[in-house]
Amino acid sequence: MNQKIIKVAVAGASGRMGREVVKMVLGDPELELVAAVARTVPNTDAGRLVGMDACGVNVTNDLELALVESKPDVLVDFTTPQSAVVNTRLAIRHRVRPIMGTTGFTPEDIAELDKQCKAEGIGGLIAPNFSIGAILMMKFAAQASKYFPHLEIIEYHGDQKLDAPSGTAVKTAELIAEVREELRQGNPNEHETIEGSRGGLYQGFRIHSVRLPGVFAQQEVIFGAFGQTLKIRHDSYDRAGYMPGVNTAVKKVMGYTGMIYGFEHLID
């Protein structure tokens, strides 16, 4: 018996991550690209857009119309934080499983979207990071924090990234906070002579965001103890490195009900 082909729509298809998703879908015989949505380059063949042969799917700028006409099983969204929640609700309303690689969701948003997914009997995923290496970095950091509770997170991205700290840094901090009791680090009389120089404060530890041209995506978690330090670091060099994770998410979300927050829940 042949496995059912999963029909995929891609929102943000003309963006740097969106183009990689389109290429990934077109290159997997178990997936079918049925819609590509972008504000720019409408009426362009999605295959041509990403440097491949024409695939017969033209880019549109109307997400709802694309969902209605193409009836995808899954929507992969790499758009903007301003569009993320609206696009997720729209997908759920049309019983399309949303896979959101876009940040901007509050805990209240996630809880409400979880209810909506369960009401429709479908699964969904909100993932700050689809890199399997980055997920392992987060898990290792959470494990280490049980033994090294004094830590700081430093994340590096290009200077055009809009949010700070990154979704990956926030997710890392949340995983650490689940297993580490809140601890106020450093000297209680510490004083910043330049505001913000010590970074953002989360559960007693600091998160630092570096934004520079020429940087892609890196994060390190530094742990300190008497006489020793431990550094756990992950470096991403190419957006294609996220695609095995996106591919896994597209296939596994078909078997879930409810909104999942964090790609780590989909890997063993």
UniProtKB/TrEMBL annotation:
Residues 6-130 form the Dihydrodipicolinate reductase N-terminal domain. Pathway: Amino-acid biosynthesis; L-lysine biosynthesis via DAP pathway; (S)-tetrahydrodipicolinate from L-aspartate: step 4/4. NAD(+) binds at G12, A13, S14, G15, R16, M17, G101, T102, T103, A127, P128, N129, F130. Its EC number is 1.17.1.8. The keyword Amino-acid biosynthesis applies. It catalyses: (S)-2,3,4,5-tetrahydrodipicolinate + NADP(+) + H2O = (2S,4S)-4-hydroxy-2,3,4,5-tetrahydrodipicolinate + NADPH + H(+); (S)-2,3,4,5-tetrahydrodipicolinate + NAD(+) + H2O = (2S,4S)-4-hydroxy-2,3,4,5-tetrahydrodipicolinate + NADH + H(+). One of its GO terms (molecular function) is 4-hydroxy-tetrahydrodipicolinate reductase. PROSITE patterns: DAPB. Signal peptide: none annotated. The active site is at H157 (proton donor/acceptor), K161 (proton donor). InterPro entries: DapB_C, DapB_N, DapB_N_CS, DHDPR_bac, NAD(P)-bd_dom_sf. Residues 133-266 form the Dihydrodipicolinate reductase C-terminal domain. Keywords: Amino-acid biosynthesis, Cytoplasm, Diaminopimelate biosynthesis, Lysine biosynthesis, NAD, NADP, Oxidoreductase. (S)-2,3,4,5-tetrahydrodipicolinate binds at G167, T168. CDD domains: DHDPR_N (cd02274). Pfam families: DapB_C, DapB_N. It is found in: Cytoplasm. Catalyzes the conversion of 4-hydroxy-tetrahydrodipicolinate (HTPA) to tetrahydrodipicolinate. Belongs to the DapB family. Homotetramer. This is 4-hydroxy-tetrahydrodipicolinate reductase. The gene is dapB.
